[in-house]
Recover the amino acids of this structure.
């Protein structure tokens, strides 16, 4: 614009800046290069005005050019600050006119008269008032922040007050119930005493007038029976009420004990907690006394990485699938170009990922197909540096994935082109992806329908991408180069058990069957974060949960609707598929016959209400540890006649029958899991789950262990060559038999024969 001394200012050029700084920069440069005569730039926002200033300052002559902007926003980058910094000469702040626009639109809609020209007030901000404007906007923003903070503090205080009020109401209710109970007991005792007095007096009169008052005596006997029945009804009512009281008292006593143990309480608060605890115990004693009186009348997603040899680790996984591949005539190979083999990763979690990917590959690859594991090292460019990463690829020639389902592969519960909710069927691709991401890695895939699928897992080299707490101490494993394949799996397995709480996805699954939500929550709280938890409201729902999710242990209440804890225990322990699962029963009924009934049904432990959460957790850990020792026993000792106290009769018979069938068909190298399942009368899936839970081995590993044990006898007595013994023991080749033999017994077959002969 050209400013004239008098009259109308002349607009030299109008150029679109598209409301953006870079566009305004180019537009002003173009105007300057056109050598137009102008002394004022009017930009339609402050951003374009600033860019105009930058261009004019670099390319314009010494002539003063005024620059005006629009918006007048506050802040360090706003138009007001630009005026103060002499970037622009002025900026215009104008109201949006939203209310006026809405009112005008409404008048048009209702056919009312409207003004064709509506003027909005505009404020010019220049050097004379910029500082005042900035001060006002800063104060407004400061007051706004203070108001938001006060609102937050007020909401927090309201929540605290509501919590305190709820606790107070609860305590008042408990006190009222206790008072009513005491009054009822007193009235019952007084009525009984009065009735006994009347009865005694009448009996004396009857003895004195036995002959003459026989009819009156019969009437008194009738009254006596009615009084006794009324008393029994009342006592039964009080006993049932006592059982009901034990549930809320458990929820009071347990949390109070936890509060007393807490280090965050002052002396006064601890003293109050102890008073509450003491009176809770007193109330429990009163309830127990009432129950004794009734008896007299009748007569409870971090990782743990170590530096490991990746080639040996994958070789071990490859070997575990080799027999299965041979049986199905699948070309299964392992290729690697790694020179430096060591990599930081969690053996247990990456093992699950690779096992899952291989299982899917075998599942969807037909006989005669091909599956390849490849390991490659490659450079990755990051901003300003290069880094190395390892790519583990699993490629198959299976059925592939339909193009319409490509985006569903990593969705939870996706299966064979559909998204289905199937519980307890493995970690799945969704979980595999999360395990890889825990290592700061990534997993990708490519698939062509009817031609095959390729999954790639990328892991970074070194340990700079891991947190200190995610790395296991090296001295825990005592790693050595020699014998690495034998030492690492056992060592890392032990570490995983010690660190189980850091990985909830891999922790033991506990099923809580309880119809009272508060008790269920208290049990869940007592178990902490060391276990995965699933719940059911009654025994019927609990059985369905067991079939769907196969928990490692069950905690069940006894008294529940639809199906109680006794029936739940009896059904699970009588079925082969579920008889191995430990069960803890929790009840408020302390009678000996109740415990006997639970133990006879097959319960592994019995806890009375109110119970201590530490005691319950200890019971859970002991039962799980016992099962772990049992599995370890059967990994090394296949004699199913021992340790009968830790194994149900059904489980002992199943394993013995399985061993017998394998030995009878030991020379059959093509024996499949399906054939074993048909022989035992259970499905392939149930057989796999059962053997895995009892022995911590897959069915294939278990069968190989039995064959290896039997081959020891052949080596000692038969006098045949190792190759002959390998085929006689049901192995596909002498090399595979030798590799399995070394892994199982830490010695080669030939060295074993020499050792046996020397000892002999």
């Amino acid at each position: 614009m050209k400013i004239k001394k008098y009259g109308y200012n002349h607009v030299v050029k109008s150029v679109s800046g598209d409301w953006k700084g870079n566009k305004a920069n180019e537009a002003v440069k173009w105007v300057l290069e056109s050598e137009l005569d102008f002394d004022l730039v009017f930009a339609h926002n402050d951003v374009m005005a600033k860019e105009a200033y930058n261009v004019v300052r670099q390319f314009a002559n010494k002539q003063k050019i005024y620059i005006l902007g629009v918006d007048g926003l506050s802040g360090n980058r706003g138009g007001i600050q630009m005026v103060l910094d002499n970037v622009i000469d002025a900026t215009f702040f104008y109201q949006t006119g939203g209310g006026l626009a809405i009112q005008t639109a409404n008048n048009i809609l209702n056919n009312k008269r409207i003004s064709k020209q509506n003027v909005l007030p505009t404020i010019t901000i220049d050097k004379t008032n910029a500082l005042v404007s900035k001060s006002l906007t800063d104060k407004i923003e400061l007051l706004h922040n203070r108001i938001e903070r006060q609102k937050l503090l007020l909401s927090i205080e309201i929540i605290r007050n509501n919590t305190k009020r709820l606790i107070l109401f609860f305590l008042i209710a408990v006190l009222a119930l206790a008072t009513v109970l005491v009054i009822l007991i007193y009235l019952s005792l007084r009525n009984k005493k009065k009735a006994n007095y009347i009865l005694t007096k009448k009996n004396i009169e009857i003895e004195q007038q036995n002959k003459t008052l026989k009819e009156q005596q019969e009437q008194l006997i009738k009254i006596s029976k009615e009084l006794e029945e009324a008393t029994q009804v009342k006592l039964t009512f009080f006993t049932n009420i006592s059982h009901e009281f034990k549930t809320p008292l458990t929820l009071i006593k347990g949390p109070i004990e936890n509060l007393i143990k807490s280090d965050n309480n002052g002396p006064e608060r601890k003293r109050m907690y102890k008073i509450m605890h003491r009176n809770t115990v007193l109330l429990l004693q009163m309830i127990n006394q009432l129950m004794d009186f009734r008896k007299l009348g009748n007569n409870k997603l971090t990782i743990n990485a170590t530096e490991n040899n990746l080639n040996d680790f994958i070789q071990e996984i490859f070997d575990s699938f080799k027999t299965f591949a041979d049986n199905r005539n699948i070309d299964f190979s392992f290729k690697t170009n790694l020179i430096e083999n060591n990599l930081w990763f969690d053996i247990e979690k990456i093992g699950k990922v690779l096992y899952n990917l291989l299982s899917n590959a075998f599942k969807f690859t037909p006989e005669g197909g091909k599956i390849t594991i490849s390991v490659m090292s490659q450079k990755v460019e990051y901003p300003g540096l290069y880094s190395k990463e390892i790519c583990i690829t699993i490629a198959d020639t299976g059925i592939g994935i339909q193009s319409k389902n490509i985006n569903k592969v990593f969705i939870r519960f996706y299966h064979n082109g559909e998204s289905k909710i199937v519980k307890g069927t493995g970690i799945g691709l969704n979980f595999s992806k999360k395990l890889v991401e825990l290592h700061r890695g990534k997993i990708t895939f490519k698939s062509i329908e009817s031609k095959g699928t390729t999954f790639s897992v990328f892991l970074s080299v070194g340990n700079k991408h891991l947190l200190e707490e995610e790395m296991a101490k090296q001295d825990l494993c005592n790693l050595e180069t020699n014998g690495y394949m034998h030492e690492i799996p056992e060592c890392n397995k032990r570490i995983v058990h010690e660190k189980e709480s850091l990985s909830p996805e891999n922790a033991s699954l506990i099923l809580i069957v309880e119809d009272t939500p508060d008790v269920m929550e208290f049990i869940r709280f007592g178990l902490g974060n060391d276990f995965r938890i699933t719940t059911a409201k009654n025994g019927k729902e609990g059985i369905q949960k067991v079939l769907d999710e196969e928990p490692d242990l069950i905690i069940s209440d006894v008294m529940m609707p639809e199906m109680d804890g006794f029936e739940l225990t009896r059904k699970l322990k009588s079925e082969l598929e579920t008889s191995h699962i430990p069960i803890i029963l929790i009840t408020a009924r302390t009678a000996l016959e109740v415990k006997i009934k639970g133990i006879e049904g097959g319960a592994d432990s019995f806890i009375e209400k109110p119970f201590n959460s530490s005691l319950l957790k200890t019971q859970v850990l002991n039962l799980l540890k016992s099962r772990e020792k049992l599995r370890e026993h059967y990994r090394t000792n296949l004699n199913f006649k021992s340790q009968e106290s830790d194994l149900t009769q059904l489980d002992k018979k199943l394993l013995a029958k399985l061993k017998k069938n394998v030995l009878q068909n030991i020379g059959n190298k093509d024996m499949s899991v399906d054939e074993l399942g048909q022989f035992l009368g259970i499905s392939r899936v149930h057989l796999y789950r059962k053997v895995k839970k009892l022995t911590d081995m897959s069915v294939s590993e278990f069968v190989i262990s039995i064959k290896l044990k039997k081959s020891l006898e052949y080596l000692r007595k038969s006098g045949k060559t190792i190759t002959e013994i390998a085929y006689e023991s049901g192995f596909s080749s002498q090399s595979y038999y030798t590799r399995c033999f070394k892994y199982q017994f830490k010695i080669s077959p030939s060295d074993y024969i020499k050792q046996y002969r020397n000892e002999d």
Q: What stands out?
A: The domain at 646-759 is CATH 1.10.10.60 (Arc Repressor Mutant, subunit A). The first strand starts at residue 40 and ends at 42. Confidence is low (pLDDT under 50) at residues 417-427, 474-503, 638-645.
